[in-house]
From TrEMBL:
Belongs to the UDP-glycosyltransferase family. It comes from the Eukaryota. It comes from Datura stramonium (Jimsonweed). Its EC number is 2.4.1.-. It is an enzyme of class 2 (transferase). Keywords: Glycosyltransferase, Transferase. Residues 15-253 form the Glycosyltransferase N-terminal domain. Pfam families: Glyco_transf_N (PF26168), UDPGT (PF00201). This is Glycosyltransferase.
Length: 475
């Protein structure tokens, strides 16, 4: 009996994602996969994120209720992020990030203390913290409660290496000087060479710089680091990181691989595009989306609208209500939707994986958020890349120049309708984009193979689980 009780004590992980859509989704799928390995999971969303999901999905307050019914022990709690529910986190992104840096850990500490007390009563104390790498507090909290500290990086190893070596970028004048150098960066360990224009734009903002600097000082103190990438696609970068840390590439973390369960996670109501897509020819539709957070200026939206019209290609365009930073009704040219109604579907939000996995989709015009890149590659859909902020610029480098599964949209300083039209026509035409489609199919195969029984990511995940259990037993 004592042996059984000890076994139970080893496997309870607390999972806390950053409160953004692109971080919540992979954290949910990671939780499902760990639960399928016998872990008890307590998943923490902020109260705001929880309210958005339940409002948009009309779902059970416990988003993991179906997972629990299937036998997975995933518990669910919510926590304040320090702001009122009606505070506009998108429009006031910098004050919100400052709150995450300076005040969020107090709420985390309070919740973990309560959960630890409650869990001790039912003989399932939390023994492991799996927190997003962009938090600044995990090492402090993990040390206080004697938890094994796992840092979960939801982006590629290239971006991890750049953030990790922010000090080198500062020393060499590519960041933090009055005139940042514009020449290529060739001194980051594990990174062959990268244009200064491909460095994450986070570096140009003082608040976000503070967040990245503090977060990656904290990442250095973690016991294990796991990342949503694939060993074969970033071998040199991953090997370099592994020389300093227990780092496991366990991607792609996409829902299709881990479970048939549908876990509600969308922050907005999803329009069902299936019927519209079902009547379109195979590979004839361009999917356009700039993700859940990034803001786009109105001039670019208008050029994109005209370019889509000039291309005469079928398209689904996700035009988020707050894509300009506020709810503006007249984003598109007057009468635009009527003019394109026969071949264009404009929606406020949709289930992206459901759309891009449809046979009618022939390309994805994307902001290059990492989740979008991963999902597109998983489905073998080539990309047109129009990165806006943060890691998206470095992700574009991987997509366009390293893996050659996409093309760049913006060759000049700004988007033009003529360029939009030309790039769309090139991508959707199977003859002109034949080489791109061949490489997309090859990288897709690499993604799928990584999750096979003997695939690198599956092997790495099992090694991660084994090391995690070992460290828990020694804690």
């Amino acid at each position: 009996m004592a042996e059984i009780r000890e076994q139970k004590l080893l496997h309870h992980a607390l999972v806390i994602p950053c409160p953004f859509q692109g971080h919540i989704n992979p954290a949910i799928h990671l939780s499902l996969k760990l639960a399928s390995k016998g872990f008890i999971i307590t998943f923490i969303n902020t109260e705001f994120i929880h309210s958005q999901i339940t409002k948009s999905q009309s779902t059970d307050p416990n988003i993991f209720s179906k997972a629990r019914e299937s036998g997975l022990d995933i518990r669910y709690s919510t926590i304040s992020d320090g702001f009122p529910l009606d505070f506009d986190r998108n429009l006031n992104s910098l004050p919100f990030l400052e709150g995450l840096i300076n005040g969020f850990s107090v709420h985390v500490d309070e919740l973990i203390g309560k959960l630890m007390s409650d869990n001790c009563v039912d003989d399932h104390p939390i023994t492991c913290l799996i927190a997003d790498s962009f938090f600044v507090w995990p090492s402090i909290v993990a040390k206080k409660y004697e938890l094994v500290n796992v840092s979960f990086f939801t982006e590629p190893a290239l971006v991890f290496a750049l953030y990790y070596h922010l000090d080198l970028l500062e020393e060499n004048g590519h960041f933090g000087s009055d005139e940042n150098r514009k020449d290529r960066v060739n001194y980051i360990p594990g990174v062959k060479s990268i244009e200064a224009s491909d460095l994450p734009s986070l570096f140009q903002n003082s608040v976000v710089h503070q967040l990245i600097y503090k977060a990656f000082q904290d990442v250095r103190k973690s016991d294990i680091i796991i990342a949503n990438t694939v060993q074969e696609l970033e071998p040199e970068t991953i090997t370099s990181i592994q020389e300093k840390h227990n780092f496991y590439a366990i991607g792609p973390i996409v829902s299709a691989n881990f479970t048939d369960l549908t876990i509600p996670s969308s922050l907005w109501s999803e329009y069902d595009c299936t019927q519209w897509l079902d009547v379109k020819p195979r590979g004839s539709v361009l999917y356009v989306s700039f993700g859940s957070v990034a803001l786009v200026n109105k001039e670019d939206i208008l050029e994109l609208a005209h370019g889509l019209m000039l291309s005469e290609v079928n398209f689904i365009w996700v035009l988020r209500f707050n894509i300009l930073g506020q709810d503006e009704k007249s984003i598109l040219p007057l009468g635009y939707e009527e003019k394109v109604k026969d071949r264009g579907l404009i929606v406020p939000w949709c289930n992206q994986t459901k759309v891009i996995s449809h046979s009618a989709i022939g390309g994805f015009l994307s902001h290059c958020g990492w989740n979008s890149v991963v999902e597109s590659i998983w489905c073998g859909v080539p990309l047109i890349c129009s990165p806006l902020v943060t890691d998206q610029l470095a992700n574009r480098k991987l997509v366009v120049y390293d893996w050659k599964v996409g093309i760049n949209l913006r060759d000049g300083e700004s988007i033009t309708r003529e360029e939009v039209c030309d790039k769309i026509k090139y991508l959707i035409n199977e003859e002109t984009s034949s080489n791109l489609r061949k490489t997309s199919a090859q990288v897709k195969e690499t993604f799928h193979n990584a999750l096979a029984t003997n695939g690198s990511s599956n092997v790495n995940f099992n090694k991660f689980v084994d090391e995690l259990k070992m460290k828990i037993s020694l804690a």
